[in-house]
Design goal:
single chain, 177 residues, mainly alpha, 0% strand
Length: 177
């Protein structure tokens, strides 16, 4: 299997076509959008494409399978497109930020676990970003971003420790674990 070597981000129209081929495209109002989706819709369409890919991956690549052939193939396929370490670190950072955001969607009042998980994901995201900036950053903007990432990681780490302490207290109260 081969792939094109295009390095430019996909256009909104190309993303919409891909989503249509996968049966996941949002319906366009052709009266208002006779020329297709606008460029500013590309991030939204990318988010839909990410969700579609991750939902399909969850069905086809079960990590509990023995042997986990689908998972192995999924990871191999993913890494064929992300060849540079910097791109992989950037993607990992974005995935962790999305994970932290997704955790907040399931948080319920009084839930002791999700705040710790959310802060831990953000700690990891900031540390992976700091790693990327340390290895691949070259300018003063990168140095500033590195300082910010490290400060954010420190704050999220502190929040994780506090949330974990609270969760432990709340979950073990009146229980003998």
């Amino acid at each position: 299997m081969t792939r094109s070597s295009g390095h430019r981000p996909a256009s909104a129209a190309a993303l919409h076509q891909a989503l249509a081929a996968l049966g996941a495209a949002p319906t366009l109002d052709h009266a208002r959008r006779p020329h297709g989706p606008r460029p500013q819709y590309a991030p939204l369409l990318l988010g839909i494409l990410l969700a579609k890919a991750e939902l399909d991956a969850a069905v086809r690549a079960d990590p509990a399978a023995d042997p986990p052939d689908g998972l192995t193939a999924l990871i191999r396929g993913y890494h064929t497109l992300t060849r540079s370490e910097e791109a992989r670190l950037r993607l990992l950072t974005l995935r962790l930020v999305r994970t932290a955001f997704d955790i907040t969607l399931y948080e319920e009042p009084g839930d002791p676990c999700t705040p710790a998980a959310e802060n831990a994901a953000m700690t990891a995201a900031n540390m992976i970003n700091a790693c990327r900036l340390t290895r691949h950053g070259t300018g003063p903007d990168d140095q500033h971003a590195l300082t910010t990432a490290l400060e954010s990681a420190h704050q999220f780490h502190h929040s994780t420790a506090q949330a974990l302490k609270q969760a432990r207290r709340q979950l073990t109260k009146n229980r003998s674990l």
